Amino acid sequence: MKSAKRTVVEVDGITISLIEWSVFPPDVVAMTFPTFILIHPNCVEDIYLLEHEFEHVRQWRCYGPILFTFRYLFEYLRGRLTGKSHQSAYLNISFEKAARVAAQAAVDRDS
Ligand SMILES: [Zn+2]
User: Fold this and answer.
1) Separation of 3 CA from ligand 1 center, angstroms?
2) How far away, in angstroms, is 56 Cα from ligand 1 center?
3) How many angstroms separate the alpha carbon of residue 90 from the centre of ligand 1?
4) How far apart are the CA of 58 and the centre of ligand 1, in A?
5) How is the chain split among helix, strand and coil, in percent rounded to 5?
6) Pair type for strands 14-20 and 30-32
7) What is residue 2's predicted lDDT score, i.e. its pLDDT?
8) What is the reported pTM?
9) For residues 60 and 32, what is the distance between their CA atoms, to the nearest angstrom?
C-alpha cells in the first residue's frame, strides 16, 4: 500500500503534519486534529482551505481538545435539534464561522 504523503508545516509556531488522505465522508475534503491535518490530494494547493484548517489548528490549541470537541459537537447538535439541516448546522458552528473569516482574511491579505 502506498504511504500517505506527509508535509510538516508550522502554524503560529505550532508544528503539525499535513497528510494527503483520500478517505472522507461525503462533501468533506479536509479534517483537522490537534497535531495533524488530513487533506484530499486534490486540495493541497487550495490556499483558502489550508488557511481555514490552520485556523482550526489555532482553535484546537486555544481551547484544548476536550473543550474544542465538546463545544464543536454541542453547537452542531444544538443546530440539528432546532431544525437546521446538516449543512446549516455545520456552517453555524462558531469555530467554522471563525475559520471562514480567518481564511478569507488570509487570502485577501496575501493577494
Ligand atoms: Zn472547518
Assistant:
1) 25
2) 7
3) 9
4) 12
5) 55, 20, 30
6) unpaired
7) 63
8) 0.92
9) 9
